[in-house]
Structure formats: C-alpha cells, structure tokens
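Blackboard transcription, Thursday session:
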Amino acid sequence: MDGYPLGSLDHNVPLIVVSGLSSDPPEQPPKAKGQGVLLRSDLPPLEGKEANFLESYFEEVDERGKSWTVVTREDHFRLRVKTVGRTFVLPSRRATLPETIEPLTNTPILHSPFSPLSPSSALYPDGLMNAQWIKKHQEEIPSIFVCFHTLTSDSKIAVQQDNRLKSALNGMRATLVESGYKTRLVVIILGDAEAKANLTAEIGQDRLEGVRRGTGLDPKSIFYIPPQESPSELRRVMDSIFALLYNTAIEYYRDLGRHARKKRSRGIVPQPTLPPTSGTSQTLSLPDWNFRYDFKSAIFAEFRQEIDAAIRSFEQAYEILLGQDVLDIIPSWSPRWNEARLLADIISIRCLRLHLWMGQTSLAVRRWQSHRDRISDFVDRRGRGTNNYGWQAWESRWAMVMANMIEMVEVPGLGPSTMTIFLQPEKALFGERLQPWELLHHTGYWYRIAARHLGARRTLAHRIPDDDRGAPDASPASRVASKAIRYDTYMCPPPHEEYPLNGNGINHAQLMIDCLLNARGQFQARKQHRIAAEISLECAREMATLGSWNEVLAMLRPLWEDKSFRSEWWLDISEDILWVMRRAAAETGRADIVVAIDWELMNERFTRRKNWHYDLAKSLDGVSSTSRPFITISDDVASSFISTSFAFRSKEGRAGETCLAQLSLKSEALQAAAPVTLSSIRVEFEGHLKPITLIHGSDLPTSSSEAPVSVTLVALTEQLGGDAKESDQSEKEDKNDGDGDEDKAKDEDEVEDKDDEKEGQLTGKCDLTLRPGHRQVFEMNIPLREPGQASASRVVLTYKTDTFELDYRLSLSESGKVTGWFVQGATKPRLSRPDGHILHIQPRPPKMKLRLVEPLGQFYANEPVPLRIGLYNEEDDSANVKLDIRIVGKVIPRFRVDAGEHKREVDTAEEESQVTGLALGHIDSSSSLELSIHLDPAPAPTAFEIQIRADYHLESDAATPIVQVLPIHLNIVNAFEANYDLMPRLHPDPWPSLFDYEDLQDVSDGDVIQARGLAQQWCLVCHYASFATEDLDVIGLDLAVTAVTPGGRCQVVNQPELSADGTIVAPKTMYEARFGLVAQKITLDDRHPVAIDLAFVVRWRRRRQLAEGENNTINVTTMTVGQYMVLGTEPRVLASVLHSSQEQAGLVRLDITIENPSSHFLTFGLVMEPSDAFAFSGSKQTTVHLLPMSRRTKTYRLLPLARGVYIRPGLVVRDKYFQKVLRVIPTEGMKIDKDGLLVWVPLALEAEEKAEG
Amino acid sequence: MSAAIPSVACLGVIGRNNNPLHISIFPSYDPTANAFTPIRNPLQFSLLLSSTIDVFDLRSKTSTASGDFGLLHAIDDRLAAYGFETNTGVRMVCIVDMRGRRVEAGGSGVAGPGGGAAGASTASSTSASAAAARSSVGSVGAGLRDSEIKPVFRAMQSAYVRLLQNPFYDPDEHAPLGGKGGRRITSKKFGDDMKRIGEAWTPGVTNL
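(Written on the board underneath:)
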C-alpha cells in the first residue's frame, strides 16, 4: 500500500474543522497570499481545562476517523477533526493564471486548481485525476467549520463582548459565502463555571438568542454547552453534538455529489482556461470527463458511507477507464498511462475495501483477480507485456495490497484467534461455482503470493542485459529511449536501479524475507506449522543468498531440532533442509551441526549429491573451528545411517555363567560413501550388566570378506572399576562362529575374580570398520554376575578423526523391537523374537549341597533334638561359606550350633531365634564339613521351622554370591498320653476324736505340724499309652503332687514298682499304673474341701540310644493329671468287702461305712433287700445315728449262692432327715452301675488266694 | 479462444504417521511455452502435501463423519488442495491446478497428455467431461465445487483398497503402529491407478 499517493486510499469520512481552542500554534502566517480564503476572528482562543480536554477528545475522534474498519450503525459518527486556532485558510477555489503567459484579451474562465483545465494543475491538459483532489476534500475543505466561543459573565462588558462575537461570526460567514464553499458554520458556546454562577438561565438564553439572531445562524448551528461536572459528561455532550453535526456533514457531501452528477449529466466537455501549447495538445474527451465525474461521486458517496452508491460509481468509473476510450488510447510510453493504471489500482482497492466492508469476501477476491487479469491483459496488449520484472513487482504489490487491506479492514472471522484458514463465501455467492481461491484466505497466503512474485521479479531482473543496467547518463540516448519503451516501470524502479551494473540495487531477498516472515507469523498463529516450516526454509534460502548464515541457522535450527519432516519421513524435504543447514553450519563454524548432518546424510534414504565426498573424516574440511571439538549427538536429534540391534542368544541366563550376545551394526550409508571406522563402541545396559566397550584394533585382520553380513567373535576382558592396572588383554579373533562354544570355557578362565568391585566394564578389541551396506555382527560372551533383568539400553558409537571426536548415542530400549540372531553367511537373522535385548538372569544354581547327615526321625517333647548337617562342596572350586541358621516357632528352646572350632549358643527366645554369619571358612572342592545343631528339650509338643542358609562364593569368582538353603520342618509330639481315674478307698485309720486333748500341741513351736484332721485314702488309676513310633523303655513311673490347698496335705502312699531296666512300652498299647494317695487336713476344724493337683511322671528313654551306647539320657515326661477335690463335708457311704477264708469259704463280709464329716447330727436308715443271689446276716432294716465328725460301720455277712459272678446287694442308705438316698461308693473289689453296688464273688480258689494275699 | 479448466496437479496419499505413502505429479498446461510441464517441482509438491496435514489436523476437531474434508485450502490463486481421510487415518490429497488444462472454445476436446492413453472407455467419459467442462467454463468464473472432487477420492480409495487386498502389502510396514515414518507404496499398479485417475479427471467427471 506504500507506493500509492498519500491520501489516495484513505477512508473518506467527513472533515470538521474546529477553531478557537487553545492548542493552536500561534498565528501561522497565512499561506501564500491570495491563494486561499482566510477565515479569521480576533477573539482570543479559549483556554482552560475544558479546552484541553476537548482538544484531546478531538484527537481521539480524528484518530478513529482514520481507521479503515467499516462504519457500522453502532458508530454514531466517524469524523476527521482538525483543530486550528482562530484562523483557517481554505484553498482557493480558482486557479490563478500562470505569470508567464501573456495577458489575454477576454477574461479567462478560471477553474479549480486541481482541474486539468487549469494550466497550473499537474493534470493540465490531459490528466485524468489525481490524489490531490481527494486530499483537498479530506484534509482542506471542511464540511463544517466549528467555532468555539464563550460568553463573558461580566455583565458590564457583556453587550460589548456579544457584539464582538456577532461581528466576528458575521465576518466569517460572509467570507465563507464569498469563497463559494458550502462549508457550514457552527458555533459552540462553552459555558464556564463563572458563567454558571453569574448568569441565570433566562439571561443566558436571551444572550444566545441575541447572538444567533445577530449572525443569522439557524438554530441547529448554535450550541451551548453548559459547564459539566466531569470530562465524561462533557464527552457525552460532545458526542451528541457530533452525532447531530455528522448528519449535517453528510448533507454537505450529498450536495457535492449531486453537483458532480449534475455536471456529468450536462454531457459537455469543458474547455480549459488556456488551450494547451506544450506537449500534446490533446485535452480530455467526454468519456474522460465522465470518468472524473463518476470518480468524484464515488468519493463523495464514500464520504457519506453510502457503500452501494460508492461501489456503483466506482465500477462505472472503472469501466470507463478500462474501456475503449480512455486507457486504450493513451500511449504506453506516456506518463499518463501509468497514471491511468494507478487510478485503476486506486479504484480497485477502494472497491475491494467496499466489498470487504459489506462482508462480500469472495466478491472481493473475485474483484481482486479480475482487476489483475484485466490489467495483465491490458499490459500484454498495449503495454510492455507481463514477462518483465515490472509486472511481477506489481503482482507482488497487488497481493500485498490485499494482505494489508485484510489486516486494516479487520475482516471479521479471519483473525489469528479464530483459527480459520479461509472464509466461506457470502450468501450472495452461495452455491455458485467458485474458484477455491475466491474463498478469502488469511493474510499468510497473500503474503506468500507476494513473496513468490518477488522471487519471479528477481529472476526477471537478473535477466536484464548488462547494457540496460548502466546509469542513464552513462549510456547513449538511444539506449535510454529504448529502455523507456522496453521496461515497465510502473511503481517500480527503472532497470539501472532495480539491478544496477555497479552497486546495490533492490534487495529482493530482503523484501522476500520480510514478506515471508509476515506470512510465517500468520501461519504459526493458526498452528499451520508445516507451512510455517516450509516458509522458514524459503526464508533460509533467501538468507543464504544474502550470506547471513547465522540467521539461516537460527531459522532452521528449530526445524532441525524438532525433526519436522524427518520424523515423518518426508525425505526430500528433510534433505533440502539438511543441505541448507549444513552449508550454514559450515559457514558459521558450527562443527557439531556439520558433523551431525553429515552423519545423517550418509543414509542411503537420501539421494546422492554429485561430487560429494560422503566421508566423515572430511566433514570438517573447510570448517573453521578453533579447537578439536568433541561432539555428542543422539538419535533423537539426528537419525543415523548405522542401525544397531542387540540380542541375547537366549531369554534367560544364569549368574556365574556366560551368555552369548550379538551386537549388530548395519551401515545404511550410500554406496558411494567411504567406509567408516569407529574408534570404539560402548553398549550400556539397564540392570546388572556391566557396560561393554569394543575398541577398534587396527592391527587385527579386517573382515575383508565381501559378504553382506560378517559375524565376528569378540573376546571380552573384564576390568574391574578402580583397577588402575590394565588387566592383560588376551584377545582372540575368530571368524567362525561355530567355535563359540569352545571359547566359552576359555573365556571363563580369563574372567578374573575380584570381590567387592561392582563398577567395572568389559572390553573387547576388534575391527570396527563399516562399509556401506555392510552388516557387522559382534558376537560376545558376556559373563553374567548378578541375578535380575538386564536389557541393553543404548549404544554409543565413538568416531575419532584428527579434526573432531564424535559420540553418537543410539537407544536400544525400544520395546517390542524384534531382533534376531545372525549366523555367518546368511543375510537375514534367524530366530527373530521381540525384546531380544532383554535377558533375565537367574541366580547362580548353587552346587554346594546341604544335607541332614541322618534322616530326620520323630522327636518327642522333653527330649533334646540333635541335628547333624553336612555341607558337601560339589562346586568346581573351593568355596568360602557363611552360615545362617534361623529357627521359627512358638518358643524356641536354647540351642547350640557346633561346627568344629566355631560354636554358638542361643538362649530361649519367643517366635524366632537365629545365628547369623557363622563363618565356616573354606571348604575345598568336593570335600565336606559337618556341623551339628542341638536343641534343648521342648517342654511341650510344638513345631519348628529351621532354615539353614549357606552364603558362599567361589574363590575363583568372588563377585558372584551364591546361596544354598536347607529348610527343615521339625514337628515335636508327646511321647505319651494318659487318662486318669481317682477312686475313693477306705482309710483304715480311725477318725480323730473331737474331744481328744492329748493330741493338742503347741503350734508356736514352729515344728512340722502333724496333721490331725480327717484323712481319706484314694487310688489314682493311670492308663497311659505310648504315642511313639517305636518301643520305648519306661524306667520309672511317679505321681507327683504338684499342689495342695493350704490346710491340706497329700502324699503318695504306694506306687507301681518297675524293674531297673524298665519295661518296654510298645506303641499304641494301654498300660495301667495305680497310685495310692492319702489326703489329710491339718486340723479338724477346717471344713473346706481340699484341691489337689497331680502330675504323672514317666521316665523313659529310647531303646536305640542304648544300642549305640552313646547317650544314655533318661527323658522325663510329666503329664498333668488335673485337679481333684477331696475331703468335702458331705457325708458319704463307702462299701468295702472282705473275703474271708478262715471261715467258710465263700462268706463275704460287706462293711458299710458312713462318714459324717459335717458338723451336724445325722440319722440314716439302712435297708438291705433280700436277694436270690446270696443270703445275708445283719439287720435288714436299721437306723444309724452319726455324731458330727464321726463314722460308723455296719457289717453284713453275705453268702453268695453263685461264684465267679457279681452279686448285687440291694442296700439303700437314706438320710432320714432329708429323705435322700445316698450313693454307696464302692472300693476295691467292687463296682457300681446305675442300679447300685456290685460285689465280685471270686471263685473258691481265687477267693482263697485273695484272702491269703 | 482457449479457456483454462482445472486439472489434477498432484495426488498424494499420506499415511497414518503423517508420512508420505505416494505422490503422483501431473503436468499442467503452460501457456507461455505452450507445453505441459508440472507447475511445481517434486520438492515443492512434497511441501504442499505436508502442509495439508496441518489443515487436516485443524479440521479434524470438527471433522465430518464421511471423512471428506472438501477444500483444505487454496495455496494460491491457481492451486488448491482437497482432502479426504479414510477411517484408518490414511489421508488422500488432491491438488488441483485451476488452470491446468485448456479447452478450445470451439470444442476440439481436452488437450491432456494422458487423454489418449486412457483407453476407449475413459475416452468417452473424457469427451463427455470435456463437454461438461466447456459448459462450466461458459458459466461464471469456471470455479469448482467440492463435490466435483469426490470421484477422485472415491477412485483413490478403491485403488487403495485394492492395494490393501494384496497379501504382499503390509500396511503396518508403511505406517508402523505408534511408530514414526513408514515406507512408501511401491506398487506399480497403485501408481498406474493414480496416474489414470489424475489424468482422467476434469470437472464434471463422475466416474473414474
């Protein structure tokens, strides 16, 4: 938009001149005398803060008036406001005659100074129109002349002041009328605070009316602004005044437009003031004049914001201009030709703007295109053709015009924030066949077109022959003349300036860069990053032509870094970027980028550039760099021509063993590329594997075979970290992969054992030369040390030359990557599997054996548990062993570990008890060591978990810890189980008497108190059985009274006797043992029952221990019998039987003893039923009286009628008082069932024996 | 008098990973040299195709269910890119040169470089299309509706489906899942199909 004359494209809005505000620069000397119409008044300009505010307000309005955005209904007015002092000069309406010309005979008809009729005008005699005219209306002739005045508040001079005002206004009006301009005069009286205080409304009104009348102004032309509270109110008042004035102004322009139309309709060609005498004598024809009138009415319509009318008039003017009668007949060499083109452009731009204002975006594009097409047609037909730089310059300008216009008009819906790329067509064109371009695209596209045409312009400019490029003064006149004909210089410089022979001409590249950067901003704002990148590339190319390499680099670096295009495999694009960038990097000495790009460009994906060396060693040739750079690139910045993969031979390995692995490097370099010799390769792992470094050994035989794949076995040497000593590298080179297994053992031998060094690495040496298209596979035997998962994470390729050193990092840890195993001779890998770079290392299988020396037998409670453990080293090497023993159970008894010189004892503990770190020292290969664990007897049946864990490492391989574990489950059970029966017996001793004084004794002696209380005899029958799995020897059986209630006493009176060797107790067989017990109270007075706690003790030993004669311990198992209550106070009836032999055989004496331990006198009735089974003597029915603390015995003699059977004496003992039958308790030789007492009648012999016994 | 009508300047197939799968370039009529030459060089066409990805991405938020994106954008007053996206994310782009071909107003037929080679069946369709094209030239602007490109995409899609039916064509190789890049389509048949489509299309052709 820059090239168009000032004012020719302005948004035309009514102009208002405001005079009388203080800001005016002091009285400018009026412009050339007589040239204009001077409006002036002598009244002083206003001052004060209102005036200041108004001034800034007008500036604001004026600024708004300059905007190109559409005037909507919401805007009440859009004005240009010019503030002046008390004087203002209007341009003169008539041109003056030039001085040089001879006086004419008749009075000349004078025309406007801007008219082609006036000799003084630039258009004289045959120019069409120029921007001067528009500028005159927009900037010099106001539609309204506003005078600001104030009413004096001093009543003394009020009349005088008002009269002065009146005369000043009258003078101005007269001048205006005289000048012929239709400019309206408007007076605004500004009230001030003083006036408000002094003037009443009526007086003020009267005075205003007086002024109005005195000046003959109509009521709409005089305003009074009463003093306002705040600026915002003043603004509001001013806004409403302007809204009123705006209508007046529109009216003014309507009059002008009407005038223009009237002149057009006259249809006559006005004659110039003087006939032209110089140049062509041609004057404007009727169509020319019509064009002028149409153009004028269009401009006036624009002033009035009547868009439709403006467009109509403009199009009319345009058609006339490009029609047969105007532009067609102007010769192309004439300056008028270019003026006409300029006018066509201006009209088109104004039309475009009108279309955009109306929202007719597609029509606007169509208008834009049709103008271009028509002009190109014209230029082709009548002008200098379109195949020259001038045309391209205009094309680019024309595109820029559209871009600028879209921005200035602020087309709705197309801003960057809307993310719209193009607008849909307006309703009027909906459904029509539209060119895609007719949908209005955002400015980025327009700027790009402009840049494209600039490029074409440069190409054409560079084709200008040298003869035409010289300065005009240095070339012959004929040449100058022909240049004028041949080159289109419409709005662009002539050839000698466009592309001079010497010196700088137009900087096309810079113009393009500016354009492209504008475009790029637009595309980026709408997230069209790929186009933005494309533009960046174009920019960079232009910058390259300028030689500003740093800018090129800055432009392309982001593209290179975010891998745009490359990551998506747009190879041709990325290649282009890379080459441009490499050149820039080389020029700026950025060695790292140069090398990275060279590395990348070696990939055969890219097309080969002719005569390029493709040799990394020569990368930095010609690149100036101060020091030998160390460059690190990774595969996420620059892709590689070497593809790598890493595969373990198997999915799983074991610590301590080795695992075969292959590192495969494939060079995908162009065939023409030089072989690359890496200096080293480092493979890094995640997990418990040490990094592997392969170093190039030039002395080694190279793999010269032409096969596409070569597999090399590389011997690895383990270096432990911190080990300064270079361990001697015994490298082997083996071409045959088949020999791999042989070497495995050897490799292992080489592995040095160093303990506690975790950081180390494996190194190998081999030939690392990669020819293009060649795959080099390095097969390695990796010693596995620690269990866990290991995965190859990345490969670092190091390349060194004299000029630089490069580290290229490649990631291997792509999940799911399928890798395979290469064998010599085959190009494709075998056994492809995903995640081949991951290895699960199992812990090393321990070959140390842990065993119980004897098989585990059953252990019983109350016996010590000896365990003997044997360690058998079946490893190939001697081992250094540490032992941990851990026992888990409820209560762990004390235990002792005994291993030769190492002994440990651990006390009783709850739940867990352990011995850790028991160093057993070295155990030689295939020798053994024995240790024993002694657990003390467990008091009760329980279970133990014993874990014996041997941590060891081999002498040869200190770094690999090995663990062997022996778990033992120990279940301890009771050897014996028993049940018990406590049966009452008749105590033979007589009961003590309550009244026995002899037995009284002094308690204070402190001697052992002899028991004097009641005594009872009991018999405890124990039935016990062995639960052992084998025969046991029971040495002794005891009954222990563990507790007796105080005041009572209990003692075992007899117990079974066993032989010294004991008796053999077979498993699962019941045995019986009887114990006699006597319980007695200390005193008779004690009435409480006595509780006794008993325990059954079995002393036993194992039979086999005797056989070995080793350990003859006797184990004591104590079983609690339970608590019994004895010596109660209830009366009881005990029956005892006595078989007598001295009398007649078969006579049985039955004693019924009734005990009354209570303190009551009790009476019992005894009834003996006669029976068929026996005869008896004794009272059949009797009553027994019992004193407290006494017992009595009734005796019956029975004569059983049968032998060897039980007889049932029908004896009933009844408490007379309570009428309660007492149970008769049997004693020895008797039993009881639910019907009563049963007495055993032995056979005669038996009875005899018994009687004797 | 001769008038310019639209022709296909370039057909592109873009893979799921935004990688180029196929690019066919067609010559346009160059009035100054009176010859058929491609309007841009292959690199520029690559750039043009890649630039459409942005528009696809931008539009996919408000995407149409049918996958037909219509006009993606006009590159300038001559070239315009139309797009179509398959369900599997393969994008097909047709770059139309709005002045790529020339019809004689007298109706001597389409001067296309491949018009004769397309065979008898297409020859009839091309002459019919030429008539359609002429009538469109007669109307205002000789523009182009989005629907007129649809046959191109239909034909491209069916060609692509035929390609997929080939058991030796592995789609994952051309757009690895979750990966980057991918190889180009090397099928000669597919290339021939594209060539046929590009050469046979003019506005008004409904079946390719």
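Lecturer's comment: The radius of gyration of chain B is 17 Å.
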